[in-house]
Amino acid sequence: MLHKLIDHSPDLKKLRNEGFEVQIKGTLLMVSGVPYLDSERRVQKGTLVKALTIAGEKVVKPNDHVINFIGHHPCNKDGSQMAQLTHSNGNKTLGDGIVVNRSFSHKPGRNYNDYHEMISTYVGVISAPVRSLDYSITAQTYKLVDSELTDSVFNYPDTNSSRAEIDAVSDKLKALKIGIIGAGGTGSYVLDFVAKTPVAEIHIFDGDKFLLHNAFRTPGSPSKAQLKRPSKKVAYLHRIYSKMHKGIVPHDECIDQANIEQLSQFDYVFICIDKGEIKKQLIDFFKANRISFSDVGMGILVTDNNTIIGHVRVTSAFKGEVDQILSKGRITFSDGDPEDDYSKNIQIAELNALNAALAVMKWKAYYGFYGNVENEDNSVFIIDDNSIINEDA
User: Fold this and answer.
1) Three-state SS for 20?
2) How many domains in the chain?
3) Torsion over CA: 147, 152, 154, 155 (sign)
4) Domain span including residue 344
C-alpha cells in the first residue's frame, strides 16, 4: 500500500508520476535507481535519502538543502569525483537501520521549494555524466516501489528524530516496557517525556483523582469543565498522551504488597511517590528481580523572608543494584514529620519538571542514548546555589 503522504503531497506525487523510484520508510524519503559513474567510469545505481518535513498528512518544503546518499561518490566522465556535491563522507545510520554512505550539498542559489525540485535537481547533477554517454540510462524507470509506515508506537511520524538524524539513537529505547508509580507532579512530567520516546509500553499507576491543585503542577492545562468533573489521574493522563503514543496503559490503583508482582514485567520503573513504607517494598522487590529504577524526591523549605530553598534528588540503580545507595542512605523511607515543611507537600511545576528531566536523562543514559562518563547513582540539584552534586560515581 503506497504511503498516503505521497497522495496528499503534490511534490511527492509528481515524483512518482514522473517515474522516479519513490519510497517512504518511516519518515525518510528514498529515491533509488539513481544512475551515476564511479571512479572507474562504470555505471552504478545509488539512492537519495532525505528526512521529510511533515505537517498533518502532507509534506512541506525541505528544512535544508543537504541530502544523504547510498552509494559511492559520483564521478565525472573522466573518473574524477564531482567536487561540487561534496558535503561529508562516512557511514551514518538513520531510522529503521538505513545506512547512508555520504551526504551532498548542492542548491540553486536558494533553498528548495519542494521535494520534487530537490530530488530532480540532485538526480540531474548526479546522472549528467552517465546520460552524456548513454541518454537512455535514467532514474525515471517507472518501477513501482511500495511505501509504508514501519511499525511504530506513535500515532504519527516522529519527524523530530528524523529531522535531527538521531533515529538510530532513539531506537536504543525501543521495545522497553516502562512503569511510572505515582502520576502526580513529577510522575506526570516523567510520562510527558517518556511518551515522546519509542518505548513499547508505558504503564502509569495511581489511585487518586485529578483535582484542582494538580492542574498547577502537571503538564498542560485542563479546562474548568474537566476540573468540575474530576476523573482519576491515570484516566486524565491517558486521554492526553494516548493521542500521541499507542502504548500508554493506565492502572487505577496504588501499588502495594498485593499487586507488586505485576512490576516484574518492566525494564525500568520510575518511583514518583513519597510514601516510605511502600517505597521500601518496591526497592526490595527491584533488587530481588534485578529491575532498574529511578527514585525521585524533593525537599522544599520556605525561609523566614519568604523565599523557597531546598533540593531536587534523583537516585537510580541499574538492574536492581541498590546496596551502595542504601548503605549511604541516599533514599529515605520515612513518611515525613508532621512538623516538617515538606509535610505540606510543597511542589512547584518547574521543580517537578526538572526532577522528571533528571530522572529521564539518567534512564536514557543507562541505555546508551546519552553519554555518561561518571555513571553516578545519585544526583542532587541545590536550588539556592543552582548546582548539581553527583555522588556514588
Assistant:
1) strand
2) 2
3) positive
4) 174-391
Q: Residues 42-77, buried b or exposed e (16+ Cβ, 10 A)?
A: eeebbbbbbbbbbeeebbeebeebebbbbbbbbbbe
Pair 180, 151 in one domain: no
Q: Specify the pairing of strand 201-205 against strand 248-251.
A: parallel
Which one-letter DSSP state was computed for residue 258?
T
Regarding whether 125 and 14 lie in a shared domain, the answer is: yes
Same domain, 276 and 325: yes
Can you tell me the distance from the alpha carbon of 224 to that of 204, in angstroms, rounded to the nearest whole number?
24
Spell out where the chain has E strands.
21-25, 28-37, 43-51, 54-55, 58-59, 66-70, 86-93, 99-105, 177-181, 201-205, 248-251, 268-271, 292-302, 308-317, 378-382, 387-391
Residues of the chain with pLDDT under 70: 1-3, 146-150, 335-344
Confidence (pLDDT) at 8? 84
User: What pLDDT is attached to residue 337?
Assistant: 47
Residue 140 pairs with which residues in a beta bridge?
20
Predicted pLDDT at 172: 94
Look at residue 385 in the predicted model and tell me its pLDDT.
94
What confidence tens digit (pLDDT) does each residue in 11-21 have?
A: 998 998 899 99
- Which residue intervals of 206-348 are DSSP H helices? 224-228, 233-241, 276-289, 323-327
What is the pLDDT at residue 2? 41
Q: Which residue from 4, 9, 32 is spatially nearest to 113, judged by alpha carbons?
A: 9
| Residues shown for the chain | 393
Establish if 367 belongs to a structural domain: yes
Virtual CA dihedral for 194, 197, 200, 201, nearest 10 degrees?
Answer: 20
Closest CA to 247 of 367, 363, 154, 364: 154
- Separation between Cα atoms, residue 188 and residue 283, nearest integer Å: 21
